[in-house]
Structures are given as structure tokens and as C-alpha cells.
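Q: What changes when flavin-adenine dinucleotide is included in the input?
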Amino acid sequence: MKKINLKSHYDVIIVGSGPSGLGAAFKIAESSNLSVLLVEKKKISSGGLRNDCKQNYTYPVGFPFEHWEKEEANELLEEVKTHLNPKMETRQNIQKYMQRAAKIGVEILSIDQAHVGTDKSSELIGSLINKLENLGVEVALHTEVAYLYKDKKALHVKDGEDISFSHIILAPGRADYDWMQEQMDTLEVSYSDNIVDIGIRVETKEENYPIVRDYYDPKILFPNKVRTFCTNSGCAHIVKEKYKGYFSVNGHSLSRENERNNLVNFAMLKTIRLTEPVVSGQQFGKILGEMVMQLSGGSVIMQRVGDFRMGSRSKKETFNSDLYDFEPTLKSAVAADLSLSMPAKILRDIWKALKMLDTIIPGVLHPSTILYYPEIKTYSNKPNFIDKNFMVKEGYYIIGDGAGTSRGITAAWASGIRAAKGILEKIS
Ligand SMILES: Cc1cc2nc3c(=O)[nH]c(=O)nc-3n(C[C@H](O)[C@H](O)[C@H](O)COP(=O)(O)OP(=O)(O)OC[C@H]3O[C@@H](n4cnc5c(N)ncnc54)[C@H](O)[C@@H]3O)c2cc1C
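A: The predicted holo structure follows.
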């Protein structure tokens, strides 16, 4: 990998090359002559741009209401498109599902979507980084920002030097929430972290969930803050991701060029807003994740719907027998009992939502359908912003999923544009 010599000062430093960092970098590079350094601790940006890369282009998907009005989001989404060049998926024949849903108090959102696929996403990221370099942005990959200083506008690079800046945009994503908390403590920026999404990932045969043939990633909203999230089909599989202290499941699909495996997976998530005395979503997610680690011997669990309905745990010996006629794509998940692992309120609301889904799309609760647990989305440390461009302190901006300004690729990119606009306004 190309190693660059870093300068001792930049007008703007952006930490994190996920979509929010990229959005900020493009905006500043295309609109000014400021010197810009983009720092990324991995070899390639992590997060959703690298994995699967489904892009949603309809407000409000991905845009938290507290920060975004429809008009501004739509305007910035047009700008996002000029960089990501989405090829929109078609959406058809969904009227019948919408009518059934409306009858039982469920809403199906109609969303413009594009999908890149895990096998193609690094190509996209590589070309974005090349374009940035051609615009004069210095991109330091495999370079980790260790910490920021309290009393000077400077940061320390791990195993490296101090670098000073006039403006900094922190865009470290969700996974590095504890790093973000440490920096906010240093900078004396106050924040809260009281929301978490907890749920399951459903895997079934495509014939049991045929809506995906007409609508790539159906966004369905159920009562009690339950929703579908991140549907994968075509060549779809489930993975487990390592977080600090536990694993969470997630879904992927490859691009259309790959052979179909005729499986579908999607998450059913319930949003939980915590109040005193537990106010940390990250902490709550970790407690639940650690419990599953204990019960599964260090993995995640899975249960067939047929067993779940009978109140019996799924067992390894019978997991693939009789009606259970497709194999799980996440082989390392442990056959177990969902109701022993999941808080009752979450399980009740998700099961009710699944039954509603089965009314709208009959078949999804076939006995063979597999429910994996846990899927945990810890959102953010919500900093207290002092202006609408996500500034937390003069010259300091915090954006993206890690700051609660977005919940998805396109909104993260839009957040980057907004922070960049804040800097451009300051220097004009
Ligand atoms: C497996 C997976 C699949 C997903 N799939 C989708 C999807 O298909 N569609 C969708 O809309 N959303 C998806 N998401 C959500 C999506 O990833 C986020 O909404 C989006 O990436 C948030 O962008 P971000 O820029 O805030 O953070 P991120 O994309 O997480 O980027 C943050 C970057 O900062 C870097 N970083 C962190 N700390 C430091 C440091 N100290 N020094 C230097 N660099 C640092 C990280 O390595 C990372 O590359 C997915 C998430 C995951 C985990």
C-alpha cells in the first residue's frame, strides 16, 4: 500500500472514510482550495459501504427526524447520487401488499433503492478514493487517530506524530462508539446514548417471501416500533459480526452476477428508548449480546419457526430434518431457544409483527423459517450540537451513524455534505 508523508497541519482533517467522511471530503474538495486530510484506520472503509451497500434514496429512510427535514434531505440525496451513480432497482406489484398491510395497521414504505453487493463494493470505494486523491485530498489509509488534544486543535496519530488542524470532522461510525465517547469527554462535549435496536434476523426460502421479486428491500413498519430492515435476496447469506464482548448477526447479498441461492434474509428490529437508571443503548445491547454468548458457548443462536411455535428448543440433530428443508447459511449459529434469551417485551412485539407479516405475505412463517438472534444496532452517542451543521465546538464537527445524524449510507453521506457546508460557510 502507498504510504504518504503527512504534513504537520491541514485546514481540514476528516477522521473516518465511511460514507459520512467521504461526503464531507468530496464537498470540501470540490468547493474550495482547503488542504484536506482523510484518515482511515483500516485498509478500506468499513461499514455498509463495504458490506452489501444497499442505498436508500427516499426520505425518511436513514434520516433521523430530529435532524432532517424532507426538503433538505431530498436536495442532498440528489448530490449523493452524483457520486454514487446508483442504478435503481425496480418496484412493482406492491399494491396488493400495501392494501393488506393497511387493513391491519401496518405501513409499507415505497423507497427508491440501489444495490451494489459485497463482492463489488470495494471497487466502488477504490474509485471514490481515487477521485478524491485526484481532487487533491490526501488520503491516509491504515492510519489510526489515537486521540485528540483538549487544549489545542491537534490530534495524535497512533505510532506517529501530532497533526494540527483548523477544522476537524469526526466520522468514526457506530463500531467505534467508545473511542468517540473518549474524545467527547476530552473535548468536554456533552452527549446521550439512549436508543438501541434489538431484534432477530429471519432466513427463509424466497418462495416464502416472494415480495422481494418485486421490491428489493421492503421497508415495513409495524406497531410498537418494530420494522423490517436490510433485506437480502438473490445470493443471500447471514454473517456474525464481532463487537466488543459479543456477536451480532447481519445479512449480506452478492451482486446480481452471482448464482442465486433462493434464500432471503431480513431483520425484524424493535427500537428501544431507554430511560433512567439504564441510559446507555450500547451498554444494554452489550448485556443482551453477552447473555447470548453465555447461552451459545460464544456464538449466536438460531431456532426454526416450527420449534418456536411448539415451545421447544431447536436441536442440532433435527435442525435439518423433515420440513426443515434448507440449511442455515450461518453454520456457526447454535440451535437453541429464542425465548430463553430475549427479553419478553421485545420477543412479544417482534413475534406479533411477524404474524402480521405472515398475514400480508403468507408463508413467511413456514416451519422451516429460521430466526437468528441477536441482531443489535447500537446507534450513537448523540452529541449536543451547537449549530445545524453538526458543530459541537468551534471548529469541531461530529457526523454519521456514530453521532446519530444518520442511519444508513445515503443519509451518512448527506451528513458529511452538511458538515462540509458548515466549514465552507465559516471560511467564506
Ligand atoms: C455489515 C453492515 C452492513 C450494512 N449494510 C448497509 C446497507 O446495505 N445499506 C445502508 O444504508 N447501511 C448499511 N449499514 C449501515 C451503514 O454502514 C452506516 O449507516 C454507514 O456506513 C454510516 O456511515 P459512517 O460514515 O457514519 O460510518 P462508517 O461507515 O462506519 O465509517 C466509519 C469509518 O471510520 C473509521 N474509523 C473509526 N475510528 C477511527 C479512528 N480512530 N481513526 C481512523 N479511522 C477511524 C472506521 O474504520 C470506518 O471505516 C451496514 C452496516 C454494517 C455494519
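Observations recorded in class: Residues 307 and 334 are 14 Å apart (CA to CA).
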